[in-house]
C-alpha cells in the first residue's frame, strides 16, 4: 500500500449480521488493512442474542444482548476497527425486515462513510443462514445503487415492468466472504488428527462456498493471532469443546493464515489469475 501514501486512506466497510461474523469470516483481512492505514468500519445488524449461550457463567438471557455487544466491541478493538454501527435489529428476524428499509439503513452508512471496498456475505450466506442472506441482499443493493435502486422511494409502479436504473456503485469494489469447502474440510481433518470434537466434519460438504467461486485469497498469516483473539473475544458463542478453543495454537494459526473472497463488483474476468490484495489495481483490472 506504499504507493497509496499520497492518496486519502481507503475505507473498508464490512457489513454483517451477528457479532462474530466479522472475526470468523474476515478478521485477518480487517486487521491487515487497518494496520496498513485503511479506515475499517463495521456494520452489524443484530446483537446476536438468539444464538445459544455457550457459557452460562458469562451472561443471562437478560444480559446477553449487552454482553454480546461488548464482545463485538472488544473484538473490533483487537482488529483495529475504527467504528462499529449496530442496526439494532433482533437476531433471527432480518428476513422480516422490509427489503428497502434494510437497504436504506446500509446505504445511509455508506453515504456517511463512503467505502472504497465493501465486504459482506455471498448469496449463499456461507451456510444458508437467513439473516446472512438478508444482509447480503441489502448490502449488494445499497452498493450497486446507493439506496436509489428499483423501488426506492416507492417510485416503482406496482405490477409494471420497467428497466432498472443504471448502476451507480458507491465504492470501487464489492467482495463476498467465501470461506471455501476445502477450508472446512481442513478444520475437520485437524480435529480428527488431534482427537478433538469435530464440529464441522459432519457438515463439511455443505458449509462454505465451492472452491471454484473464490477469486481472491489473502495471506493474513501476520494477523492470524489477532483473528484468533477476536474470535475468542466472542466468549459466549464459543463452547469449551469448540475446536477454536481445543486445537493446538499452531494448528489454529495455520488454519487462520488465509481468507477467501469472491469479487462481485467489478465482476472478475473469466480465468483471471487469483487476486491477493483487495486494493491492488482498480476497477479497470476487470477488463
Ligand atoms: Zn452470523
The main β sheet shows up as:
7 strands, mixed
Hetero groups in this structure are:
zinc ion
Query: What share of the residues lie within helices?
Result: 25-40%
Oligomer: single chain
CATH topology: Rossmann fold
Strand content: 5-15%
Order of helices and strands: EHEHEHEHHEHEHHHE
Tally of individual domains: 1
Average pLDDT works out at 90
Structural class: alpha/beta
Structural write-up:
The protein has 287 residues and is α/β, with parallel strands linked by helices. It has one domain (8-156, 166-262): LmbE-like (Rossmann fold). Helices cover 35% and strands 15% of the residues. It contains nine helices and seven strands, in the order E-H-E-H-E-H-E-H-H-E-H-E-H-H-H-E. Strands 3-2-1-4-5-7-6 form a seven-stranded mixed sheet, sandwiched between helices. Bound molecules: zinc ion (ZN).
In short:
The chain has one domain (8-156, 166-262): LmbE-like (Rossmann fold).
Spell out the blueprint of helices and strands.
Blueprint: E1 11-16, H1 21-35, E2 39-46, H2 64-79, E3 83-89, H3 99-112, E4 117-121, H4 125-128, H5 130-145, E5 173-177, H6 181-194, E6 216-219, H7 224-233, H8 243-246, H9 249-255, E7 258-265
Parallel strand pairs: 1-2, 1-4, 2-3, 4-5
Antiparallel strand pairs: 5-7, 6-7
Helix pairs in contact: 1-2, 1-7, 2-7, 3-5
Residues 17-18, 21, 129, 132 line the site of zinc ion.
Amino acid at each position: 500500500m506504499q504507493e497509496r501514501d499520497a492518496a486519502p486512506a481507503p475505507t473498508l466497510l464490512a457489513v454483517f449480521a451477528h457479532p462474530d461474523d466479522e472475526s470468523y469470516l474476515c478478521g485477518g483481512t480487517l486487521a491487515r488493512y487497518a494496520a496498513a492505514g485503511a479506515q475499517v468500519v463495521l456494520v452489524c445488524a443484530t446483537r446476536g442474542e438468539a444464538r445459544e449461550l455457550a457459557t452460562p457463567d458469562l451472561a443471562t438471557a437478560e444480559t446477553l444482548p449487552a454482553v454480546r455487544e461488548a464482545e463485538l466491541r472488544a473484538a473490533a478493538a483487537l482488529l483495529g476497527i475504527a467504528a462499529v454501527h449496530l442496526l439494532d435489529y433482533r437476531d433471527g428476524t432480518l428476513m422480516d425486515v422490509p427489503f428497502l428499509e434494510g437497504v436504506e439503513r446500509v446505504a445511509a452508512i455508506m453515504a456517511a462513510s463512503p467505502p472504497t471496498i465493501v465486504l459482506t456475505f455471498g448469496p449463499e450466506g456461507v451456510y444458508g443462514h437467513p439473516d446472512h442472506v438478508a444482509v447480503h441482499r441489502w448490502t449488494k443493493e445499497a452498493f450497486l445503487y446507493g439506496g436509489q435502486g428499483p423501488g426506492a422511494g416507492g417510485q416503482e409502479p406496482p405490477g409494471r415492468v420497467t428497466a432498472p436504473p443504471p448502476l451507480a456503485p458507491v465504492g470501487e469494489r464489492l467482495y463476498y466472504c467465501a470461506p471455501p469447502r476445502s477450508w472446512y474440510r481442513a478444520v475437520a481433518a485437524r480435529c480428527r488428527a488431534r482427537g478433538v470434537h469435530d464440529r464441522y466434519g459432519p457438515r463439511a460438504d455443505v458449509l462454505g462456498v465451492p472452491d471454484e467461486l473464490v477469486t481472491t485469497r489473502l495471506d493474513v498469516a501476520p494477523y492470524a493471532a489477532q483473528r484468533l483473539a477476536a474470535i475468542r473475544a466472542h466468549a459466549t458463542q464459543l463452547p469449551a469443546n469448540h475446536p477454536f478453543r481445543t486445537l493446538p495454537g499452531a494448528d489454529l494459526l495455520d488454519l487462520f493464515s488465509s481468507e477467501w473472497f469472491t469479487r462481485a463488483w467489478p465482476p472478475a474476468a473469466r480465468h483471471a489469475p487469483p487476486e491477493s490484495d483487495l486494493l491492488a489495481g482498480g476497477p479497470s483490472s476487470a477488463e
